[in-house]
Amino acid sequence: MKRIPFFLVIGLFLINPGEGPAQQTGNKAEQTQTKENTATPSGPVVHDVSILHVFLPQVLTIYVGDSVRWTNNHGIEHNVKSEAKTGEGVSVFVSGQLMPNNTYITQFNKPGVYEYVCAVHPAMNGIIIVKPRP
C-alpha cells in the first residue's frame, strides 16, 4: 500500500461530516486543499477537480452516485489513475493521457476512500471520499 503524505492525513482529519467545509487557517502555505460536498444529497452531482502541478481540491468528499470531472488546466500532459484495484488487478479508474484542456469523468457507485495519482508525475496525488447517500 502506498504511504499517504502527512499533510493528506491532516487534511482527512479536517473533514467533519455534517459540519460543512473544513475550516481553513490564514496561512495559505499550511492549507490542504479539501472540498466537502455541499450539494443537496437528493441526486447525483458532478464535482470538478482541476489538474495543475497538483490536484485541486486534493481531498474531495462526495456521495455515492456522484461523478468527478478532472480537467487538465496545466500546460503539460497528466493523467488520473486509481490506486485501488478491481478483483482482476486493474485500477478502478484510469483516464489515459490528458492533454491541456482535456477532461476525464467517472462516477463513484460504492462508498469508500479512493486514492489516485498522476502516473506521469507520481508525486501528484489526491483522495476521493465517497459517502453513502443519506
Task: Describe what you observe in this structure.
The structure is a single chain. Helices cover 7% and strands 31% of the residues. With 134 residues, the chain is mainly beta. The protein has one domain: Cupredoxins -  blue copper proteins (Immunoglobulin-like), CATH 2.60.40.420. Strands 1-4-9-8-6 form a 5-stranded mixed β-sheet, with helices on one face. Strands 3-2-5-7 form a 4-stranded mixed β-sheet, with no helix packed on it. The protein is globular and about 40 Å long.
Outline:
This protein is mainly β and 134 residues long. It is built from 1 helix and 9 strands. It has one helix at residues 6-14; strands at 34-35, 46-51, 55-56, 59-63, 67-72, 81-82, 103-107, 112-117, 125-131.
Q: What Rg do the Cα atoms give?
A: 14 Å
Largest sheet, spatial ordering of strands: 1-4-9-8-6
For the termini, the CA-CA separation is 30 Å
Structural class: mainly beta
Query: How many beta strands in the DSSP annotation?
Result: 9
Strand content is 25-35%
Number of domains: 1
Shape: globular
CATH class: Mainly Beta
DSSP helix fraction? under 10%
Q: Segments where pLDDT lies below 50 for 5+ residues? A: 1-32
Number of helices: 1
Largest sheet: 5 strands, mixed
CATH topology tier name: Immunoglobulin-like
CATH architecture heading? Sandwich
Which series of helices and strands comes N to C?
HEEEEEEEEE
The CATH H-level superfamily is Cupredoxins -  blue copper proteins
In round numbers, the mean pLDDT is 79
